Amino acid sequence: MQINLLGARVDVVDLAGAVERIAGFVQSGIPHQVVTLNPEILYRAQREPALLSLINGADLVTADGVGVVWAAKVAGTPLPERVTGIDLMLALVARAAAEGWRVFLLGASPGVAEEAARRLQEKHPGLLVAGTMHGYFPPAGEPEVVEMIRTARPHLLFVGLGAPKQEQFIARYKQALGVSAAMGVGGSFDVIAGKVARAPAWMRRMHLEWLGRLIREPRRFKRMLVLPRFAWLAWRKARSGRCGRR
Ligand code: UDP
């Protein structure tokens, strides 16, 4: 089932459900794009029709962040839970190790994706890493990066270039990449590699992960100003009854 939130389709799935859907994508062998949708991107998509159609063209869209879960609740179309990029990636990596799926990590500063892959293999000794590549290449270098991934033939591609750059990269090259499941993961490689700490568990439980990030990375303040605007928009739209089940 899906809901329509501010014009964007969001799938009604929890973490386990998202993993199952992606397992189906892997079995199909056909390219699929997964988007973990956060309030910043959904807000931006209100002004960028191309971004909104990218979201609506994805094969699975999960609610990344309490803001999206809250907005869905206010609209009367609740979602079971938030499914963030990092949580979904970690769950998929565990599944990949068990199933023998190859994973490719693209993004972050040089060395970070390798270190993240090393730590993931330490935790899941059977994990097959098809390749890693940093995320600082010029637009002219994209075809070469795509070719590198295509020939590595991963089942899962995690792209950490920041949103929406990573979603745009995947959408642009979805067919050329030929990867069964590709998804953006933001700064997850930095967290997995131990370069950036995640908010403590108690903060995450209290839905205060955003506050933990703000304390650690004050430069995010400007970006976070969009959250109250998003909340206001979602509330207004819900009141006028324009959101609802598809
Ligand atoms: N990044 C990258 N290439 C770029 C810009 C950013 O690989 O051209 C990486 C950056 O090093 C970081 C991630 O993308 O690892 C962005 O992390 P952030 O937490 O800002 O993601 P967002 O919250 O924007 O999705």
Shape: globular
What string gives the helices and strands in order? EEHEHHEHHEHEHEHEHHHHHE
Mean pLDDT: 94
Radius of gyration: 17 Å
Give a count of the beta strands, DSSP E runs of length 2 or more: 9
Distance from first to last alpha carbon? 8 Å
Q: Largest beta sheet: what is the strand line-up?
A: 4-3-8-7-5-6
Share in β-strands: 15-25%
List low-pLDDT spans. Answer: none
Number of H/I helices: 13
Provide the list of bound ligands, each named once: uridine-5'-diphosphate
Report on the architecture of this protein.
It is a single chain. The chain has 246 residues and is an alpha/beta fold. The protein has a domain at 26-193: Rossmann fold (3-Layer(aba) Sandwich), CATH 3.40.50. Helix content is 51%, strand content 16%. The chain is built from 13 helices and nine strands. Strands 4-3-8-7-5-6 form a six-stranded parallel β-sheet, sandwiched between helices. Helix 8 links the parallel strand 7 and strand 8. Helix 1 (15-28) packs across helix 5 (85-99), helix 2 packs across helix 3 (49-57) and helix 2 packs across helix 13. The termini are close together. 42% of the residues are buried. The mean pLDDT is 94. The site of uridine-5'-diphosphate has 13 residues, from helix 9. Uridine-5'-diphosphate (UDP) is lined by residues 107-109, 135-136, 160-163, 186-187, 189-190.
Task: Name its key features.
246 residues; alpha/beta; Rossmann fold; 6-stranded parallel sheet; 3-stranded antiparallel sheet; 13 helices; binds uridine-5'-diphosphate
